[in-house]
Write a structure and sequence with these properties.
By secondary structure, the protein is mainly alpha-helical. The chain has 10 helices and no strands. The chain has a single domain, classed as MetI-like fold.
């Protein structure tokens, strides 16, 4: 909270100094007014809902596909030696690079944006799940084998709980990448969404609207990480015996 207050004070100070003209750097009060009016007339609310629909669909698909592929790469050596190497290369490709292909394959619609979100979050999830499973101590697996655990029981009772810290980290990273990919896709996409509002603000020269959207994206991303992913991390890790001591 102190950091936020300090940021606002510095922002107001730069505004009053006039380093940039007001139409390029509006004051915190002006941005606050824009946020209030956007919420009051539901324009920003509608944009948030539209963006979240795309985001959730793309994120869920990325998590499901990424988990399946990550487990397969961790367990099948020849897949890891072929597709695994390709996965590392694809992770370095910015999600916005996929947008021209998405527009050609799906057209200028929600499917293209969702595709970009999936691609943006998928490879991080794959690598996180693969690394988490491969990082399980061989000693735990040998002990389970001596207890005559079947492969399925071994996976769900030993490998999955031991790999949970890395998998949850992958979920959080995939969420962050999904947010970034969503904004990249919506900047060139169509329909109602935060990205389209951002472009509208730019086209109209309304920097208070641009900054308002940036704040919404940052705040929503942080709040969801705090209320969902950090709670999931602490709850799940405590259940499986990974909770921090002391």
């Amino acid at each position: 909270m102190l950091a936020i207050m300090l940021l606002v004070i510095v922002w107001e100070g730069v505004y009053r100094i006039g380093f940039w003209p007001p139409f390029l750097l509006p004051s915190p009060y002006q941005v606050g007014q824009t946020l209030w009016y956007g919420i009051a007339d539901f324009s920003l609310v509608i944009a948030v809902v539209a963006s979240f629909q795309r985001l959730l669909i793309g994120y869920v698909l990325a998590v499901v596909l990424g988990t399946i592929l990550g487990v397969a790469l961790a367990k099948v050596r020849w897949l890891d030696q072929t597709i695994g190497f390709l996965t590392l290369g694809l992770q370095t490709v910015p999600s916005i690079v996929w947008l021209p292909l998405a527009l050609l394959w799906f057209g200028l619609n929600d499917k293209a944006v969702i595709f970009v979100v999936v691609i943006g979050a998928l490879w991080t999830m794959v690598i996180s799940v693969k690394s988490a499973i491969q990082g399980v101590s061989p000693l735990l697996i040998r002990v389970a084998r001596t207890l005559s655990y079947s492969n399925i029981r071994l996976f769900f009772k030993v490998i999955l709980p031991a790999g949970l810290p890395g998998i949850i980290t992958g979920l959080r990273l995939a969420w962050a990448f999904a947010w970034r990919s969503l904004m990249a896709g919506e900047l060139l996409g169509s329909g109602a969404g935060l990205g389209q509002v951002l472009i509208t603000g730019r086209n109209l020269g309304d920097m208070s609207l641009v900054i308002a959207v940036m704040l919404i994206v940052g705040v929503l991303g942080s709040v969801i990480d705090l209320l969902l992913f950090q709670q999931l991390e602490s709850g799940v890790l405590e259940k499986w015996g990974h909770a921090k001591q002391g």
